[in-house]
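so my prof wants the structure for this chain in the tokens format not the other one, which i didnt know existed until like an hour ago. anyway here's the sequence
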Amino acid sequence: MKWFKKKTYPDFWLQYLNQFESSQDQNLNNLRFIIFDTETTGLDIKNDRVLSIGTIAVQGHIIKVSDSFECYVKQDLFNSDTVKIHGLMKKGTHTKISEKEAIIQFLAHVKNTVLVAHHAAFDIAMINQVLKRLELPKLKNKVLDTGHLFNKTKLDTTKSHFSLDHLSNRFNIPQHDRHTASGDAYITALLFVKLIGVLSKNKSLTLKDLLRSDKRIGLL
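here's what i got, hopefully its the right format
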């Protein structure tokens, strides 16, 4: 008979999982959203690495500057070509922590909140790759993409992909600290609040409305 050993997880991951045991409130005014961004060594999800993570919370349509998180990760890999974008040198002056410690702190901060990012698939994939390297499952949080939310507004149907720079200009959002994780998280938070304002102008929204895809298949 072949015996299978049950996989055990570290305490920080179990504490994270425990946050999801109760059902989530659907009222947008009560929900805590964590807007986040990652700066990376490049765009290759499998081979590139997270350099920094920045977050800021939004609750009740208010940006909570005091409820934020920022960390810089020790660089085992270094791509000098991307320094001109994010400005993070291999050594630099920032205090850097290990990839594992960054994830521990990030999970403790976000808990079971709804994560929000611009072009969120990339940032989520980069975080999930870190988890994979730590032999942990993927993130369990619900995720919203401000690019998708803008498409829901129907303000511009000429294309489906809009950059953060383009939408920042459209909504008159100053681009301070652009291409830093915390700076981009704050810009995205401003964009998120504005998009929710547009989407809720003529109707009462729930989280399900924001998560629901606008695409229709067949007669659905």
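also thought this was worth mentioning. Residues 82-88, 216-220 have pLDDT under 50 and may be disordered.
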